[in-house]
């Protein structure tokens, strides 16, 4: 790689991490903290270097037929833009994305940015440790989402007619990455390769096996109640009243159980007794809950999945936007053809006007010559 002397003087102590050749001798040189756009001498411009720091809050792209404009939003400090040939946009955008993600502390030291993809309203960046997703008109912004490979426990695919989904099972939830079918294989292979390399496996089956919970032996021996159960003391029960007391206790227990199952109370019981028993049950329930939590267990919370998957909705929106963009491109091309015809017509009109002016001049000279001829 040949680094121009003007760029070399602008680098300082930094090294060039990426280099993208543009039109002619123009080129983009990317360092860990900034991008340097080098413009060679031309008919209308002198040799120059423009710097674009990577501490941007957002990246926006405007792609035209011949040139594409990349805008870096620096928040309160405004934004800065530069243009590159449309055919070089993806090559230029990839290292800039890597630099911005690094400056924003999204990626860690030693983490490499492998691939980046743009699908209208969806941008995917695959690194060695994660997938970064951004949905919106901007290519990247602070409202990004990420899937960290450390949490991934399984991989699968869901095929569709227009687009397909890569399903990543994580320790928190199920994540989905949707892409058009013509690009889906590239996305799937890029994500799979990165995930497999991170977990040191070679297939989805190995990944699932490596993350499956260990099977524990529940045991089938006899149930032991231990030595903490005190014997029932029956020394106070008399011989004569034991049957009656047992019968009364059984009847009271049955009545109480029936009332509790029916959701009611015994009207014959004094209100003070009922209130005291209810308070005792509340204290006992609170004590049981405290003992349950102190033993290392927690009450399970309901995990309700949303009725509409935000990722699926974003992907559908991306598909619709892609179709709209295709129609817009077609209309732009038709407008270009019309403009070309209009230019041709204007040129023909200019030629006709020039010929008409020559004809008028010839007629005037003819009239002058006729005036000089004597009448016969």
From TrEMBL:
Residues 243-262 have a biased composition (Low complexity). InterPro entries: DUF7115 (IPR055539). Residues 1-108 form the DUF7115 domain. Keywords: Coiled coil. Residues 209-286 are annotated as: Disordered. Residues 345-372 form a coiled coil. Pfam families: DUF7115. It comes from the Archaea. This is DUF7115 domain-containing protein.
